[in-house]
Design goal:
heterodimer, A: alpha/beta, Rossmann fold, B: Alpha-Beta Plaits, 2 domains, 8-stranded mixed beta sheet, two-stranded antiparallel ribbon, 22% helix, binds iron/sulfur cluster
Chain lengths: 612, 214
């Protein structure tokens, strides 16, 4: 048995329980009673993948169906990969220890672009042909993907049978149902794909032809075989009625986010122009306070976790946040459970919310003003003012905080050196505020600044914008360093070619499939880990394929250009994105959706205004 | 408030979880069991849990011991059934009782070790009849060479085909501890050929006075 064979080698690798399964909450079924088997693959190591909420939802959702079985698969760390290749152990699923090559579905979640090489390596470890065209007509395994990066799946188009766009709760089951029916009737892979392309939210890339202009931009994307001209994402309209697990797998080893979490809302009302998630997950929908509490309690009880997190893009925008916290805290206090709110916003971080949270834990505060001056914050529509930053810091300092982390981006559209100096000035003001307060907490203040290179993403108003080149980012960092005077401020700056590669893949087209393949062939794997990312691999693969990374990363697109994702509809209209881009350049802000509807079009799935 | 000690098994693939992970796993199991666990006082209260003797990664056991405290008395069989209902596959509480000895009383432990390879009993006999068995040990002051031979007591040995089963008694606890993997590693090095360690099972923990630790 494969399980016994694997066990022989587990003591050779770090954290062997990444590979041995058997956790509380895992679902094991009798194979002979299962009709469709799904291998849910996370293209990163166990510790990262197990922290991912979407996987937990879909795992439980599929397993609720008696005759469907979903299992977990993660990317092996390099030590285990070596063992697997040496001993010819194929990639297997943690629940059954069966090789995933024989599964009906192999599904990947696309969370970040730098995980793409891990996907290719996992397919290879599984023994599945990397290119879709080499898989033949046998209907299984169907190689599918979903998750936020599906909004521009083109750099992966040649490797996948189909992509799932938007929220997967319904469409995953619809696909599995269709598959079961067609497989039982002897259908081939292409017959299934043709039919599947008719389901809303399913994109079958092999049914589309892409033609290019001489300058390398796209001329047209043309569907074949009756596939729809535009593919529209799926949305769960009612969050209270959407499926949410009562039990999740409880890992033995410590994972990145080692806690249970309840998703309190989807979407975001803010409209920060750089934030892809803020547009991809529109429209804003929330769960009632009651549902959140009930789901949180159920998860704490079934798992035994002592930390519960309320997750979303902006938890404090929930309309019943205080009520929800009150209710939850009565429960969590009594049960010795920490309540964590990872995404509190600076502007409505009220004193009462803060007091509630500080009764639980008093660690550092993190704020993301994203830009150093009000002008640039207006450009990116991060509606946070300096006064708000100061007011919140004052509350925080009164509450005993002595550590503040400030997050910024560098290379934003229209950015000048004045904006960079503004980052230092803002941090200096926080320092001054602290020392001007007689009632401040004891101890030394530490303000840390962290800056990341801005990566323009599809379906944002900045999808047209060029990324700033590395040399210019380095120059800007030097400007920032010079502008910092106080010893209480620590700036962590880090530049890597990863940002440019990420920018290439984010807005890339199908011609990049060959680049990805070449990078992987050259040893590329787990590229999201600094220790494994090798820039030369990427640049030589671009060269080999006659492609220029700057064409994808550092070029301004016209509003008329056909984007690689033009045939994909995330319900946010291009007209709106253009409008927002123009407003950005004019330095005009757009208010949050709750105050004013900017008319992005996402409400069409609700059939009513988002905030009636 | 009452102190309890359980003896439990750690068998099968839970042998791949480290001591630290076992601790976290047990905390969660007790929380799921809904037993009235006692938490420490103070700003960050945590569930009180104590393991008198750690087990190395990769080893199984039928005699692990864990101490915890409940805020009120609960019948023994209820503790066992509630814990067993909430523990992962491979962990099983066998008995519960009041702690009699303390961790510092522990003196030795017994292990069944199964090895696989050709002619192993011959190699083993040669290995164990050496004058000294020197191994390197990591200490705070760096590497130190120690002779482990006087620390090993062989309580049984059977050989069948390519399998060699040993019963070893080794010092354990604060007063001097010899990890069973130190012995198997030294043997592998001596034999200069691949030897598969197919099983390490801790079978008993003794006090210095010779009684079973309970
Ligand atoms: S339709 Fe209006 S309110 Fe709804 S997400 Fe779009 S801009 Fe916001």
């Amino acid at each position: 048995m494969l399980k016994d064979k694997i066990e022989q080698y587990l003591l050779e690798v770090q954290k062997p329980s990444r590979y041995s399964g058997g956790e509380v909450g895992q679902v094991v079924k009798d194979k002979s009673k299962v009709d469709v088997r799904f291998a849910f693959c996370f293209p990163d190591v166990y510790d990262v993948g197990m922290s991912h909420l979407g996987m937990k939802i879909l795992y439980s959702l599929i397993n609720e169906r008696e005759n469907y079985w979903c299992e977990r698969v993660f990317a092996p760390w390099t030590d285990m990969e070596e063992v697997m290749r040496r001993e010819q152990i194929p990639l297997y699923a943690l629940e059954s220890f069966d090789p995933i090559k024989d599964f009906d579905f192999i599904g990947f979640t696309l969370q970040y672009e730098m995980s793409y090489t891990a996907i290719l390596n996992m397919l290879d470890l599984a023994g599945v042909p990397i290119f879709q065209r080499d898989r033949g007509e046998t209907i299984f395994p169907m190689i599918v993907a979903g998750g936020p990066c599906s909004c521009n799946p083109e750099p992966l188009a040649d490797f996948f049978d189909l992509f799932i766009l938007g929220e997967g709760e319904e469409v995953n089951l619809e696909l599995m149902d269709l598959y079961k029916e067609m497989r039982d009737n002897g259908a081939t892979r292409s017959e299934f794909l043709k039919k599947a392309s008719q389901i809303q939210g399913v994109y079958v890339p092999s049914l589309y032809d892409v033609t290019y202009h001489e300058d390398g931009t796209i001329d047209a994307v043309t569907p074949r075989e009756n596939a729809p001209a535009t593919i529209t994402k799926r949305v769960m309209v009612n969050m209270d009625e959407s499926y949410y697990p009562k039990q999740v797998v409880v890992p033995f080893i410590e994972i990145v986010h080692d806690r249970v979490s309840v998703e309190v809302l989807r979407g975001c009302i803010r409209g920060c122009r750089f934030c892809q998630a803020g547009f991809l997950y529109r429209p804003f929908r929330e769960k009632s306070a009651e549902t959140v509490c009930q789901q949180g309690k159920a998860l704490c009880e079934s798992t035994g976790y002592d930390e519960l997190s309320l997750s979303s893009l902006s938890t404090s925008d929930h309309s019943q946040i205080e009520e929800m916290l009150d209710q939850l805290l009565t429960y969590t206090d009594e049960r010795h459970i920490n309540l964590s709110l990872p995404s509190l916003r600076i502007d409505n971080f009220s004193k009462s919310v803060m007091e509630k949270v500080t009764t639980i834990r008093k660690s550092g505060l993190t704020f993301a003003p994203e830009a150093g001056t009000q002008r640039l914050r207006d450009v990116i529509n991060k509606n946070v003012t300096e006064d708000e930053v100061m007011r919140t810091c004052r509350i925080a300092f009164e509450g005993g905080y002595t550590q503040v982390k400030l997050y910024f981006m560098m290379g934003l559209p229209t950015e000048t050196d004045e904006d960079i100096v503004g980052i230092a000035q803002l941090a200096e003001k926080v320092v001054d505020l602290f020392y001007s307060m007689p009632e401040r907490a004891k101890g030394k203040l530490q303000v840390s600044i962290s800056t990341a290179t801005f990566v323009p993403k599809p379906f944002t108003p900045f999808e047209f914008e060029p990324q700033t080149e590395k040399a210019e980012i380095l120059r800007k960092q030097a400007v920032l360093k010079k502008a910092i005077k106080s010893k209480r401020i620590k700036a962590s700056m880090h530049v890597s070619d990863i940002s440019q590669i990420e920018a290439v893949l984010a807005r890339g087209d199908r011609r990049l499939c060959q680049v990805l393949y070449d990078v992987w062939k050259d040893g590329g794997y787990l590229d999201s880990w600094d220790e494994f990312f090798k820039a030369e691999r990427w640049y030589s693969a671009f060269e080999k394929n006659g492609l220029d990374p700057a064409f994808y990363a550092n070029r301004t697109r016209s509003y008329e250009e056909v984007m690689p994702w033009s045939h994909i509809d995330y319900m946010v209209s291009k007209k709106f994105l253009i409008r927002e881009n123009q407003k950005a350049h004019a330095g005009e802000t757009t208010p949050p959706c709750r105050e004013y509807c900017g008319g992005c079009g996402a409400n069409k799935c609700l059939g009513r205004p988002c905030f009636p | 408030m009452k102190d309890y000690r359980i003896t439990f098994e750690k068998r099968g693939r839970v042998k791949y979880i480290s001591h630290l992970d076992l601790n976290r796993c047990m905390i969660r199991a007790i929380r799921r069991s809904d037993l009235p666990a006692w938490y420490t006082e103070g700003f960050h209260p945590h569930l009180y849990l104590m393991f008198p003797l750690a087990l190395s990664l990769g080893a199984e056991s039928i005699c692990e011991v864990m101490d915890f405290r409940l805020t009120e008395e609960v019948p023994d069989d209820e503790i066992l059934s509630r814990l067993n209902a909430s523990m992962p596959e491979g962990l099983k509480a066998i008995s519960v009782h009041e702690p009699k000895y303390e961790a510092q009383h522990i003196g030795s432990a017994c292990y069944d070790v199964t090895l696989q390879g050709e002619n192993l009993s011959q190699f083993w006999n040669d290995f164990i009849s050496q004058e000294q068995i020197l191994t390197e040990k990591k200490t705070k002051k760096g590497m130190k060479t120690i002779d482990i031979k006087p620390m090993i007591t062989i309580e049984g040995m059977t050989a069948e085909n390519d399998n060699l089963c040993l019963s070893l008694r080794l010092p354990a606890g604060n007063e001097g501890n010899l990890n069973v993997t130190v012995v198997t590693d030294a043997f592998q090095k001596y034999a200069e050929k691949p030897i598969l360690v197919t099983k390490i099972l801790r079978t008993k923990i003794f006090c210095q006075n010779g009684e079973i630790f309970s």
